[in-house]
Amino acid sequence: MLNKRTWALGLFLTLTTALWAQSEFFNTVEFHNKTKGEIYYLFCSPGDSEFWGPDVLGGNNTLDAGGMAEFYISYPENSNTFDFMAIDEFGNTYELYEKEITDGTPAKFVISEDLKIDTVDLDTLEDDLIALEIRNLTGFEIYYLFVSPSDSAMYGIDFMDSETTLPDEESISLLFFKDDTTIDYDIQGIDEDEDTYSFSLTLDPELGDQTVDINYDDMDS
After folding, report:
1. Residues 91 and 171 both lie in one domain
2. What is the pLDDT of residue 172?
3. Residue span of the structural domain in which 200 resides
4. Is position 158 within any domain?
């Protein structure tokens, strides 16, 4: 059965009040839940990708009805498009396609009943998901964490959301859709000193839930 917490600080995440200078290079995106139920899953796909990225709420969080979640988002052009899919506690599925995000204008998207396209069985859906645990073993606090399909030129959403960080030796769990074949994802972490750690990961559905470490050796030169 589902065991997800209401959107809040995750068990492994730490609230930070500092506004780091690097954030000025990212735009922000807000999601407002105007449906009648908690959002259990919120998937994002860059507009130039044929695959869904992981659940941006993380493996243990939900977004309350009437609630809001804010994230930083990274994209290479002045303006790029993204697709979003939300699934609520009743299995109702909502989709937002080709949503444009433009520099200088924070994005705000409302998930509402009129966007409903389908209803899925949540137990069946759970069987179609893979959990990836990402551990921070860099020796530094990670302020931003991006995970995006490798067929995209965009890193997309920061999975730390706009107020949390990933301390050294802690981890975050993300959920991905299983696919018939392996899918490559690009991962980038940015730490408290503005150093970046970048690498690619092949997610193999035959292996089930998986773990990957961000190590000091992954630091970009």
Report:
1. no
2. 93
3. 130-149+165-218
4. no
CA–CA separation, 4 and 90 (whole Å): 14
- What pTM was estimated for this model as a whole? 0.86
Name the burial class of residue 194, with classes exposed (0-12), middle (13-18) and buried (19+) by CB atoms within 10 angstroms of its CB. Answer: exposed
Give pLDDT, residue 205: 84
Q: Secondary structure of 131-187 in the HEC alphabet?
A: EEEEEEECCCCEEEEEEEECCCCCCEEECCCCCEEECCCCEEEEEEECCCCCEEEEE
What's the CATH code of the domain at 96? 2.60.40.2890
Decide if 63 contacts 142 (C-beta within 8 A). Answer: no
CA 129/CA 123 separation, integer angstroms: 10
42: its two tokens:
């919120």
Locate tokens 């290079």: which residue? 25
Q: Is residue 17 part of a domain?
A: no
**Residue 120 falls inside a structural domain:** yes
Q: Report which DSSP code applies to 56.
A: T
Q: Quick one: pLDDT at residue 180? A: 83
pLDDT beneath 70, residues of the chain:
1-24, 59
Number of domains in the chain: 2
Q: What is the pLDDT of residue 21?
A: 38
- Pair (134, 121) in one structural domain: no
